[in-house]
Amino acid sequence: MLWFIIWNVFFANVLSGSALYEVNVFLEPKNIPRVLAEAVPGQASFFISYVVTSGWTKLSSELFRLIPLVCSFWKRLFSRKDGNEFEVPSLPYYNDIPTILFFGLLGITYFFLAPLILPFLLVYFCLGYIIFRNQLLNVYAPKYETNGKFWPIVHNSTVFSLILMHIIAFGIFGLKQLPLASTLLIPLPVLTLIFNAYCQNRFLPLFKAYPTECLVKQDRKEQNEAGMTEFYDKLVTAYQDPALMPVQYARKH
């Protein structure tokens, strides 16, 4: 979902051409910095308007939740469910997290091209913190626990935003014929990729498998719970190998 938004909202509006043209741009890597340096600054006003119209409006709708209210009213009106029954909603991670990360990409990409976008993004993130904090505490109930497994997506999105910003800056310095600035910029994407590789090797395995220390703490915590005795009693008969079960023969009369 995140890469879909980045491609269809960012690159489609920046390149503003046919799909074949957009693909051809990335098939010639040497022209990518120049094309982005020419196209990205021209769309600054559009993305400022996008933050205001899409970002702020979405936060307002998240706070008031008018659409879920209307849907809930019609469901109760035409269904046979009791009016006192209420299903607690869950946060749509698949939609909200990519949107927040995309606005972060806009901030990193445009902070040196169009600094005017930063106050609008600051208002968006401040309002988002207040609103989503209230929603998570008082409105939503999680259907499942991810244990931080969304964090690698956030990390990869941030690294991609930094690399994209470096490429655009490199292209702008090239268009303005500033060889010294372009030369000094070369170590930045290299250091970013090295840091990304370090994080992938150091922290990514923690999101794929739980550490033994955490598992031991969880086992000790569950031992003191009241329902564990009943759970262990049911565990004995929860599964029986069919090969070890006694065979019952029908009696012949």
Automatic annotation (TrEMBL):
UniProt KW Membrane keyword: yes
Keywords: Membrane, Signal, Transmembrane, Transmembrane helix
Top-rank taxon: Eukaryota
Segments passing through the bilayer: 100-132, 153-174, 180-199
Signal peptide: 1-19
Pfam families: RSN1_7TM (PF02714)
Full protein name: CSC1-LIKE PROTEIN HYP1
